[in-house]
Amino acid sequence: MEGMAARRLPRPHRFDVYVAIGGLLGGLFLVVCRLGVRTSDDPVTLFDGHWAVLVPLGVMAGCELLRRTAPRTALLTGTVAITADLMTQGNVATVLMFTDLVYAAVLYGPPASARRIPRITGLLMVAGAVVPFAVWRVPEALLIGVLVGIVAFGPAATGWIVRDHRDAAEAARLRAEQTALLAEMDRVQAVTAERARMARELHDMVANHLSAIAIHSTAALSLDDAKTSQEALAVIRENSVEGLAEMRRLIGILRDGSGDHEPAAAPTLDGLEALVDTARANGLDVDLDAGQGEVPAPVELAAYRIVQESLTNALKHACPGRVTVSLARRDGVLDVRVTSPYGHRDGPRAPGSGAGLVGMRERATLLGGTLQAAPDGALWTVRATLPLTEGDPA
């Protein structure tokens, strides 16, 4: 029973039911009015009487129910019915329903059938004109080919044109959906990249000052010395002011000049001296060697941020000792190297999240460069190689 249910044809479309009922009622009306296509004495009419046309008419109406769900079966059965109708006085409704079956077979049938049916009906139209004319040698014989063209080839060609337009519209719709999907993916990627860029900027701008504040406030709280506390508070205030300035700069970037604060210029390697002075004021012993020449702006910004984050990490985690910063241009790359003492630290430390190392690697990768950060004996070494080409400053 389940196998029989699986093989059962789907329910006919509502429009197909209306077509079948309309064709059947129209054919019955013609029978009642005794309006046939041919007379009873026509030599083609083998079955006399107006009621002989009911069988082909009923079969053709039944085929209309399958015009969408089983178009090839409907056309084959309809061809048998139209052949039988030729042996009766004929019914215009039967002929019209057959033309609709040809049209539906091309429009709803498989692609192979849709290509094959117009060719077959075209050949039949040509044969219907040439063969009778060659046999009877009268111009009227050409009308047979004309009738075949009207009944078969015309609907088939119309179905092919409609199907072609439908397929083109469907392809255009799919392309539009694909374009919209790609645009949405690009938008999501752009938003993600922008969020990552702003996260790097926020971290690099503020982390250095907050780390200094955390370390000096811890020292001020742990030491009962008024002079030390006074010096720590001075450093804390200086870093607070500078951090606030950096936050305002970030707000200016976010506003993009649409508000009261214009975005400030991006930091350059010319500001490394000031950056190192700030690190020295925060307690680091820093030695700077910045003997590079002109470099592209994206590389300049990335190098500045890598040095800034390396000094911040040294302030939070390095042991007492000298921190060296060197920048050198060689073999088409800018080599950035920051070393700091590595080992156990007795003094106060600021907590780290690892976001700084992630941000430095992202900056180097976006420019096509590399970054390594690992202990090297008694030193912690951060080395970045940045190609001297234009890139995304991220």
What do you see in this structure?
- It is a single chain.
- With 394 residues, the chain is α+β, with helices and mostly antiparallel strands.
- It has two domains: 2-178, no CATH class; 195-343 and 350-387, Heat Shock Protein 90.
- It contains eleven helices and five strands; from the N terminus they run H-H-H-H-H-H-H-H-H-E-H-E-E-H-E-E.
- The protein has helices spanning 2-7, 14-32, 54-64, 71-86, 92-108, 111-136, 142-222, 226-255, 272-281, 297-317, 355-366, and strands spanning 285-290, 322-330, 333-341, 370-376, 379-387.
- A hairpin with a 2-residue loop joins strand 2 and strand 3 (333-341).
- It is rod-shaped.
- Residues 1-6 and 258-263 have low confidence and may be disordered.
Short description:
63% of the residues lie in helices and 10% in strands. It is an alpha+beta fold. The chain has two domains: 2-178, no CATH class; 195-343 and 350-387, 2-Layer Sandwich (Heat Shock Protein 90).
| Structure classification | alpha+beta
Number of domains: 2
Strand order in space, largest sheet: 1-2-3-5-4
Describe the global form.
Answer: rod-shaped
Quickly count the helices.
11
The Rg value, from CA coordinates, equals 44 Å
**Secondary-structure element string:** HHHHHHHHHEHEEHEE
* Percent of sequence in beta strands: 5-15%
The number of E-state strands comes to 5
CATH class of the largest domain: Alpha Beta
- Average of pLDDT: 82
CATH architecture of the largest domain: 2-Layer Sandwich
